[in-house]
Amino acid sequence: MGIVELLGMAASVSLLSGWRLYLTVFATGLAMQSGYVDLPENLAVLDALGSWWVIAIAGVGAVAEFFADKVAWLDSIWDGLHTLIRPLGGALLALAVVDSGDPTWQVIAFLLGGGAAFAGHATKATARAAVNTSPEPVSNVVVSTGEDVVTGGLLLLVFANPVVAAIVAVVLLVLAIWVMWWGYRKFRTWFPKAEANRREA
């Protein structure tokens, strides 16, 4: 697996960890354990992700996140608590994928992985904060379920075709920037209206 494929996988996995960190770690561990992900021997640091202990803990976290994400107020609290955890997790995942014998690439992967995970997390938190303002619970559940399906599908794509993973990473990054911009504009229009309604009441 060449450096382009490895960086593509690292970037994609980092971005997805910003949406669903525990599911990403869980899926990566299972892919390694089953031999689905064929990585060079010098990347033995990834063996920790294939540990059944790590897989089990990530699985519990994924289940907890699945249900927490469906309740609007709990989702906001969960996202707030994971503002530091997701970027750090994404940085470590990216670091694990890159050649452990090259310190330069390790630093680059750690920084870019953390940035990609933060972009994914900020996208999710911004979009969900806008959705959570809706008084009915259906939209929150629909959006959350969509995130689950998209994350799972993209993880399969990343592991199946590392070349496509690089394209996926770029597309996700562009999408993340667009969603953050959309969320920012929505909040700019929503807060003045909410304040005006409060004063009229």
Written description of the protein model:
The chain is mainly alpha-helical and 201 residues long. The chain has one domain (3-200). The protein contains eight helices and no strands. The mean pLDDT is 75.
What's the gist of this structure?
With 201 residues, the chain is mostly helical. The protein contains 8 helices and no strands.
Strand content: under 5%
> What's the number of helices?
8
Shape: globular
Element order: H for helix, E for strand? HHHHHHHH
Span of the ends, CA to CA: 63 Å
The biggest sheet, with number of strands, parallel, antiparallel or mixed sense and barrel status, is: none
Q: Averaging pLDDT over every residue, what do you get?
A: 75
Relative helix content? over 70%
Low-confidence stretches: none
Number of domains: 1
Please give the oligomerization state of what you see.
single chain
**Number of strand segments:** 0
Q: What structural class results from the helix and strand content?
A: mainly alpha
Radius of gyration (CA) equals 18 Å
